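Example record

Each entry pairs one chain with its bound ligand, NA7.
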Amino acid sequence: MHTAPRPPSPSAAPQLDAVIVGAGFSGLYQLYRLRALGLRTRVLEACDDIGGTWYRNRYPGARCDVESTAYSFSFSPELDQEWEWSERYATQPELLRYLHHVADRFDLRKDITLRTRVTGAVYDEGDGHTWQVTTDTGETVTTRFVVLATGCMSAVKEPDIPGAGTFAGRALHTADWPHEDVDLTGRRVAVIGTGCSGIQAIPLLAEQAAELTVFQRTPVYALPARNRPLSAAETAELKARYPEFRAAQRRSKGGTLFEPPTRSALEVDEAERRATYEEGWDSGVLSGLLRTYTDILVDRAANETVAEFVRSKIRSIVTDPETAETLSPRTFPFGTKRPCLDTGYYATYNKPHVSVVDLTKTPIVEITPRGVRTSDREHAVDVIAFATGFDALTGSQVAMDIVGKGGTTLREKWADGPRNHLGLLSAGFPNLFTVIGPLSPSVLSNAVVAIEQHVEWITDCIAHLRRNGITEIDATPRAEADWCTHVADLAAQTLYPSVDSWYMGANVPGKPRVFLAYTGGLERYRAECDAAAEGGYRAFALSGGAD
Ligand code: NA7
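Structure tokens for the complex follow.
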């Protein structure tokens, strides 16, 4: 049970209409929308700047893996016309500049409070139908609605390695990189972790370090980004067709545009398959290989054809055959962990000062004051860069003391895995919406398109409630149970749940194994959400209120 403060008396009118937690892509757009409805809204942001994911992930090489022109807001045609992306895949600084531009252009900053972490929220289940939100600055605010815009990858997974605090050199984490330049010239650097963050950082860290040792537990499949500057002509051409492009994005399955495959990988011959995979590899698109055939994510034999194709590419790039084999993923099907887009990742291992330690052969025993001790030796280093990932999708929410009806905390309710209806509302936690949280398409889609769909649905819902004098909306236990079953059933038709990935919560010790995202695609999901809103949100439990 919780120790949070008691809720306010039912008669007290809330100080605010809405509190939004987080000032990244989700929080900024939600603020814009709720303000347009005339709601008294505040965004509370833990960091000392806006930007969310794109503020925190400042490591060298941090870049989006969806094309910038698609990974950007679509709600304002004027914004589309005035903003210029410089590269096919924007770097973190450019994405942050974009979000600053959005905040300024739409005058959002005045309702954003920085350096204020929401620590808890308690629901008044009397007639008040309000949340009392508390912060680490000692503030308490009452509000009718709360929107968790805390992102999918914001709870950093601290390295679960003995002795991690004893290192006498400099310890860094990709999700909390220093603001000032880190000069690694002449330094011996260790990188622990080879997910997307590690893979983006390693080539840049290798440019400076005297020695770079990569500690790899599981190799991943990485595809070349083929990043390049965007020409003025390309940009002009895109801007001319932005309206139709944005409309098509909204109708798409994953927020990016491509022709869906029609054939099985097993019904074509080897030469044709190879040619198709070469094209996907050269496309420089994250899903370039996933979208080649219908059965890549559902049939192991089909998947193995593309997995072996990537391994053949690794062998063709990495000159030392033993290193190439160490870097070759063999323990999980292609795409069941998020693939990575890289720039020079595999070729970095051809440099004489770069090496990889295969932790499946010589596991890390501990971090020592001098470096990293594996089962066979101690690796002395000056700097350790942890690229060990996140408590994805649920971590940021269960970190807060959120107390719903009956004094139950969200943490308690989700002890066996997240439960909600449509990823939007969890039964017993009324008026508390989540943007791209668990059991929604979130990490399996272009996040910005998914965010816009959620924010717009939440905004329409709140507008409806206010128009009709309804002060409480809750998911019904029945609808929630059906949704959780539906999400699990869809995932079970794929290879995803067969793999220990952060999609399954498997990277965090003790986290329940549940597939955390909706695999049915954005298009179908959007239809589900629209259907649930029909008939005055009849799929939810609604109550009238006191004010
Ligand atoms: P990821 O994808 O979770 O990668 C974390 C990496 O760190 C992965 O290689 C892990 O190996 C490794 N890891 C984690 N803990 C340890 C320990 N204790 N010892 C050795 N290695 C460890 O996080 P990223 O930040 O790279 O990317 C997250 C997402 O952000 C990414 O997919 C994009 O969507 C954006 P493991 O695989 O668990 O064996």
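The CA atoms of residues 51 and 355 lie 34 Å apart.
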